[in-house]
UniProtKB/TrEMBL annotation:
Composition skew (Basic residues), residue ranges: 1-10
Name this polypeptide is given: F-box domain-containing protein
Annotated F-box domain residues: 23-62
Location of region: Disordered: 1-21
Domain spans labelled F-box/LRR-repeat protein 15/At3g58940/PEG3-like LRR: 111-225
Length: 240
């Protein structure tokens, strides 16, 4: 993040000892650096209790990590984030076990769509492990700027976007404990995918599955469920 040259603002609010609030008088770029150091969007948002100057400033961060935020609050929080430009570099959403169960697939779809509107370069979306995943589907929207996507323990079936949509910048895709309606169709929407990691996948039905990619360079599979499945892999041969 580049530091601006704008002049400091004077703050009329008292500091902790009743004197001038010099911290809030810092240039906005420096305040954003302070908030970024917190490493948590919820903690950054709570700084608004310190001074009016800090209120809502967290929504301009370009690295956003939501950890332990109640799931119903996520869509509202994402809606407050300033949309690009400038670009969101990292969007990390990790829902804790205390917010289980997540029973509404529409809510998950809504949060994913709200995340897609922020056009992050890197996305991490992780729900708590659920021992009873369902066959209900959620829509996986396209993340047009994402170079890396990590999806973990989503207890619903990820529905691949319709043909014509793409993940044009995606280079690394990691799916852990996820169900996908059509893995082959999903990969066909990722023309520049180089690394595919499949971990702990839960597959519906007893069918063979195929990995076809003209760009794939690394495939990692780590799941007991995959051992009994015939896997057809078609990818470019390395010249090294």
């Amino acid at each position: 993040m580049e530091l601006g040259t704008r002049r400091r603002r004077r703050s009329s609010e008292p500091g902790p000892a009743g004197g001038p609030d010099y911290l809030s008088a810092l240039p906005e770029d420096l305040l954003l650096l302070v908030l970024a150091r917190l490493g948590c969007a919820a903690a950054a948002a709570r700084t608004g209790l310190v001074s009016r100057r800090w209120r809502g400033l967290w929504a301009r961060l370009r690295d956003l990590a939501f950890r332990g935020v109640a799931f119903p609050s996520l869509q509202v929080a994402l809606g407050r984030v300033a949309r690009p430009p400038p670009a969101v570099s990292l969007l990390q959403i990790r829902v804790s076990d205390e917010h289980l169960p997540i029973s509404d697939a529409d809510d998950v779809t809504s949060v994913l769509r709200a995340a897609a509107l922020l056009a992050p370069e890197k996305l991490v979306f992780a729900l708590p492990w659920d021992p009873d995943p369902t066959s209900t589907e959620v829509d996986l929207p396209c993340f047009h700027r994402a170079t890396s996507i990590v999806l973990e323990w989503i207890p619903f079936v990820l529905r691949t976007p319709a043909a014509g949509a793409e993940f044009p910048a995606l280079q690394t895709l990691t799916l852990t404990g996820c169900q996908v309606d059509d893995l082959g169709a999903l990969l066909s929407l990722c023309p520049h995918l180089r690394v595919l990691r499949l971990k702990g996948l839960i597959w519906l039905g007893d069918y063979d599955w195929t990995v076809h990619s003209t760009s794939l360079q690394e495939l990692v599979m780590d799941s007991e469920n995959l051992r009994a499945r015939p896997v057809d892999i078609v990818a470019p041969c390395s010249s090294n």
